[in-house]
Amino acid sequence: MDLNKILTELRQQLILINPEYEKRDVFIFAGIDIAARFFKNNGSWEVKTIDCSRCGTCCKKMTGKSFPFSTPDGCKHLITSGNEYLCGLSYFRPNGCAVAELDLEECSVKWEPVK
Ligand code: SF4
Ligand code: SF4
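# iron/sulfur cluster complex -> structure
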């Protein structure tokens, strides 16, 4: 199976339905996380090969006036479950949280280009 061919065809079909999609990034979600993404500036698909470890670091760094849920300790919706951190908003979490790229050393998430 040629994943790159499948994803490229998927995007082309979407553009046929709505030509505006050619100007947009495309994200494929698995639940509330992104499984595959296409950045128009890169012009190629990437897939997530290592998932989020639920370390909570990114949500703790979501501070500042531009973030609506900001507290001095990070996002007010961050909750703990055992040793993991979870989003208390679950399926209602903002899209921006899923697509944010904070480039943190602690982050386990890895992306690989689809060839
Ligand atoms: S809304 Fe949820 S995912 Fe977004 S920063 Fe807060 S806890 Fe994290
Ligand atoms: S920093 Fe990375 S691994 Fe940790 S919660 Fe955020 S996305 Fe998940």
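# post-check
Strands lie at 26-30, 33-39, 44-50, 70-71, 74-75, 78-81, 84-87, 110-113.
The longest strand covers residues 33-39.
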